[in-house]
User: Fold this.
Amino acid sequence: MTPHWLKQTDVGIELSIYCQPGAKVSKIVGTHDGHLKVSLQAPAAENKANEALLQWLSKQLRIPQRQIHLLSGQASKIKRVELWAPISMEHVVQRLKP
Assistant:
């Protein structure tokens, strides 16, 4: 079964993420209201959490950062991210399993 935070789109795969900036370590914490909950080491100030999230996703999913796009949530804890990489939904679930 596909998790609620993961969706196939016409151009890629969309993730719904709840970010918790200012944590000691960047990691997946679980889920929160249907979103994948990720704690980020970076602070929320000056777009640092958004940049850290994209870098962290790139590392976890093993895809180039240029293939990850922040669709919405630039100033919110809830973010929509789209992956434009040749990657399967199963791979995403395996790499980001809460």
In short: The CA atoms of residues 30 and 47 lie 23 Å apart. The chain has one domain: 15-95. The domain at 15-95 is CATH 3.30.1200.10 (Conserved Hypothetical Protein Mth637; Chain: A;).
